[in-house]
Amino acid sequence: MVPIQILFGSQSGNAQNLASIIGESLDALGFSTKVVDMGDCDPEEILNMTHILIVTSTYGDGEAPDNASAWLSYLKFSDDLNLDHIRYAVLGLGDTYYPHFCQAARDFDEYLSKRGAYCLQKRLECDLYYEEQYPDWFNAFIQVLKKSVHE
Predict the structure, then answer these.
(1) pTM of the model as a whole
(2) What is the domain-level CATH number for residue 112?
(3) Looking at the 3D structure of the chain, how many domains does it have?
Protein backbone atom coordinates (compact mmCIF):
# COMPACT_ATOMS: atom_id res chain seq x y z
CA MET A 1 0.00 0.00 0.00
CA VAL A 2 1.18 3.51 -0.82
CA PRO A 3 2.18 5.29 2.41
CA ILE A 4 0.39 8.53 3.25
CA GLN A 5 2.50 11.02 5.19
CA ILE A 6 0.43 13.26 7.45
CA LEU A 7 2.70 16.21 8.17
CA PHE A 8 1.68 18.63 10.87
CA GLY A 9 2.70 22.13 11.82
CA SER A 10 1.33 23.02 15.23
CA GLN A 11 1.97 25.78 17.72
CA SER A 12 -0.66 24.99 20.35
CA GLY A 13 -1.34 21.30 19.64
CA ASN A 14 -4.60 21.51 17.69
CA ALA A 15 -3.06 20.62 14.32
CA GLN A 16 -1.08 17.82 15.95
CA ASN A 17 -4.23 16.41 17.55
CA LEU A 18 -6.18 16.58 14.30
CA ALA A 19 -3.32 14.98 12.35
CA SER A 20 -3.35 12.09 14.84
CA ILE A 21 -7.12 11.69 14.56
CA ILE A 22 -6.90 11.66 10.76
CA GLY A 23 -4.04 9.15 10.85
CA GLU A 24 -6.01 6.80 13.11
CA SER A 25 -9.09 7.15 10.90
CA LEU A 26 -7.14 6.38 7.72
CA ASP A 27 -5.38 3.44 9.38
CA ALA A 28 -8.76 2.03 10.41
CA LEU A 29 -9.81 2.20 6.74
CA GLY A 30 -6.77 0.19 5.68
CA PHE A 31 -4.47 2.97 4.53
CA SER A 32 -0.80 2.98 5.48
CA THR A 33 -0.12 6.26 7.30
CA LYS A 34 2.63 7.97 9.19
CA VAL A 35 1.92 11.08 11.26
CA VAL A 36 5.01 13.29 11.21
CA ASP A 37 5.93 16.40 13.18
CA MET A 38 7.53 18.63 10.54
CA GLY A 39 10.03 19.72 13.17
CA ASP A 40 11.30 16.14 13.44
CA CYS A 41 11.79 15.57 9.72
CA ASP A 42 14.18 17.18 7.24
CA PRO A 43 12.23 18.97 4.49
CA GLU A 44 14.32 17.16 1.85
CA GLU A 45 12.52 13.97 2.91
CA ILE A 46 9.64 15.19 0.73
CA LEU A 47 11.67 13.85 -2.20
CA ASN A 48 10.95 10.32 -0.90
CA MET A 49 7.22 10.86 -0.39
CA THR A 50 4.35 10.40 -2.83
CA HIS A 51 1.16 11.20 -0.90
CA ILE A 52 1.05 13.89 1.77
CA LEU A 53 -1.57 15.64 3.82
CA ILE A 54 -0.39 18.81 5.53
CA VAL A 55 -2.33 19.81 8.62
CA THR A 56 -1.14 23.19 9.82
CA SER A 57 -2.13 26.10 11.96
CA THR A 58 -0.99 29.67 11.38
CA TYR A 59 1.04 31.49 13.97
CA GLY A 60 1.73 35.12 14.76
CA ASP A 61 1.35 37.41 11.77
CA GLY A 62 0.56 34.74 9.19
CA GLU A 63 3.66 32.58 9.68
CA ALA A 64 3.93 28.82 9.75
CA PRO A 65 4.22 27.32 13.23
CA ASP A 66 7.78 27.00 14.55
CA ASN A 67 7.97 23.30 13.76
CA ALA A 68 6.86 23.87 10.14
CA SER A 69 8.85 26.99 9.23
CA ALA A 70 11.84 25.10 7.78
CA TRP A 71 9.50 23.11 5.52
CA LEU A 72 7.77 26.23 4.26
CA SER A 73 11.11 27.97 3.62
CA TYR A 74 12.39 24.91 1.74
CA LEU A 75 9.33 24.86 -0.51
CA LYS A 76 9.38 28.62 -1.01
CA PHE A 77 13.05 29.10 -1.83
CA SER A 78 14.01 25.88 -3.66
CA ASP A 79 13.34 27.20 -7.14
CA ASP A 80 14.62 24.09 -8.92
CA LEU A 81 12.65 21.68 -6.72
CA ASN A 82 10.48 19.33 -8.78
CA LEU A 83 7.64 17.70 -6.85
CA ASP A 84 5.59 16.34 -9.74
CA HIS A 85 5.68 12.91 -8.03
CA ILE A 86 3.68 14.28 -5.07
CA ARG A 87 -0.07 14.04 -4.55
CA TYR A 88 -1.16 16.32 -1.71
CA ALA A 89 -3.89 18.05 0.25
CA VAL A 90 -3.73 20.83 2.82
CA LEU A 91 -5.94 21.36 5.85
CA GLY A 92 -5.52 24.67 7.67
CA LEU A 93 -6.57 25.60 11.19
CA GLY A 94 -7.01 29.19 12.19
CA ASP A 95 -9.12 31.89 13.73
CA THR A 96 -11.02 34.29 11.47
CA TYR A 97 -10.43 36.98 14.09
CA TYR A 98 -6.86 37.32 12.81
CA PRO A 99 -6.13 39.14 9.53
CA HIS A 100 -3.92 36.34 8.15
CA PHE A 101 -6.44 33.54 8.66
CA CYS A 102 -4.94 30.18 7.59
CA GLN A 103 -2.06 31.91 5.78
CA ALA A 104 0.38 29.06 6.47
CA ALA A 105 -2.02 26.58 4.84
CA ARG A 106 -2.41 28.90 1.85
CA ASP A 107 1.38 29.22 1.56
CA PHE A 108 1.96 25.46 1.71
CA ASP A 109 -0.69 24.93 -0.95
CA GLU A 110 0.79 27.63 -3.19
CA TYR A 111 4.40 26.42 -3.00
CA LEU A 112 3.58 22.73 -3.38
CA SER A 113 1.61 23.60 -6.51
CA LYS A 114 4.39 25.87 -7.85
CA ARG A 115 6.86 22.99 -7.45
CA GLY A 116 4.68 20.69 -9.57
CA ALA A 117 2.83 18.70 -6.90
CA TYR A 118 -0.70 17.62 -7.79
CA CYS A 119 -3.47 18.78 -5.46
CA LEU A 120 -5.85 15.91 -4.68
CA GLN A 121 -8.47 18.11 -3.07
CA LYS A 122 -9.10 21.80 -2.57
CA ARG A 123 -7.60 23.20 0.64
CA LEU A 124 -9.85 23.38 3.68
CA GLU A 125 -9.54 26.39 5.98
CA CYS A 126 -11.13 25.75 9.36
CA ASP A 127 -12.05 28.32 11.97
CA LEU A 128 -11.86 27.58 15.71
CA TYR A 129 -14.42 24.76 15.66
CA TYR A 130 -12.62 22.51 13.20
CA GLU A 131 -14.29 19.41 14.68
CA GLU A 132 -17.51 20.54 13.00
CA GLN A 133 -15.90 21.69 9.75
CA TYR A 134 -13.47 19.02 8.63
CA PRO A 135 -15.58 15.78 8.52
CA ASP A 136 -17.26 16.47 5.16
CA TRP A 137 -13.95 17.51 3.62
CA PHE A 138 -12.25 14.45 5.10
CA ASN A 139 -14.88 12.06 3.75
CA ALA A 140 -14.40 13.51 0.26
CA PHE A 141 -10.62 13.30 0.73
CA ILE A 142 -10.90 9.59 1.52
CA GLN A 143 -12.59 9.01 -1.84
CA VAL A 144 -9.95 10.86 -3.89
CA LEU A 145 -7.20 9.23 -1.86
CA LYS A 146 -8.57 5.75 -2.63
CA LYS A 147 -8.44 6.52 -6.35
CA SER A 148 -4.96 8.03 -6.14
CA VAL A 149 -3.25 5.21 -4.23
CA HIS A 150 -4.68 2.62 -6.64
CA GLU A 151 -3.49 4.38 -9.82
Answers:
(1) 0.95
(2) 3.40.50.360
(3) 1
- Confidence band for 127, pLDDT divided at 50, 70 and 90: confident
With cut-offs at 50, 70 and 90, classify the pLDDT of residue 2: confident
CA distance 54 to 59: 15
3-state secondary structure the chain: CCEEEEEEECCCCHHHHHHHHHHHHHHHCCCEEEEEEHHHCCHHHHHHCCEEEEEEECECCCECCHHHHHHHHHHHHCCCCCCCCCEEEEEEECCCCCCCCCHHHHHHHHHHHHCCCEECCCCEEECCCHHHHHHHHHHHHHHHHHHHHCC
Say if residue 151's pLDDT is above 70.
no
